[in-house]
Amino acid sequence: MPDLTSARLKDRLTIEQAAEHLSVSVTTLYSWRTRRRGPRAMRLGRRLYYLRDDLDAYLRAQFSDGSQARRSA
Q1: Is the CB of residue 50 less than 8 Å from the CB of residue 15?
Q2: DSSP 8-state class, residue 24
Q3: Contact 39, 54 (CB under 8 A)
Q4: Does residue 72 sit within a domain?
Q5: How many CB atoms within 10 Å of residue 49?
Q6: 3-class DSSP assignment, residue 72
Q7: CATH number of the domain that 33 lies in?
Q8: Domain tally for the chain?
Q9: pLDDT (tens digit per residue) in 18-56
Q10: In this structure, is the dihedral angle defined by the CA atoms of residues 32, 36, 40 and 41, taken in order, positive or negative?
C-alpha cells in the first residue's frame, strides 16, 4: 500500500498541473493511464491527481546511461 500521508497528499497536482510538470499534454497522460503506462495516479471522487514525488520518480526513471544504445549498435 502506498504511503499517502497527509503531507504527501497536500503536494498533489491536478492532471493539468502534472502534464505541465512533465512537459506533455493532458491527452498523453490520459492515454498513458488507459494503457497502464506513465506515472501512477489516484482518483479522489471525480478528480484525477498525481503526487509530485511520483512524477519526479517517473522522470528519473526515464533517464538512460546510453548503454543499451551502445550495445545494439
Answers
A1: yes
A2: S
A3: yes
A4: no
A5: 17
A6: helix
A7: 1.10.10
A8: 1
A9: 999 999 999 999 999 999 999 999 998 999 999 999 999
A10: positive
Helix (H, G, I), strand (E, B) or coil at 11: coil
Residue 71 covered by a domain: no
Q: Is 45 helix (H, G, I), strand (E, B) or coil?
A: coil
* Contact predicate 19/28, CB 8 Å: yes
- Which position has the grid cell 497536482? 13
Residue 68 falls inside a structural domain: no
What is the DSSP secondary structure assignment for residue 73, as one 8-state letter?
-
Whether 67 has a pLDDT exceeding 80, the answer reads no
Q: Is residue 17 part of a domain?
A: yes
Edge-to-edge strand order for the sheet containing 47-51? 12-14, 47-51, 42-44
Boundaries of domain holding 57: 6-61
Cell numbers at residue 65, please?
546511461
What cell does 15 get?
492532471
List phi, psi (to 5°) of 4: -115, 60
Single-letter residue type at 6: S
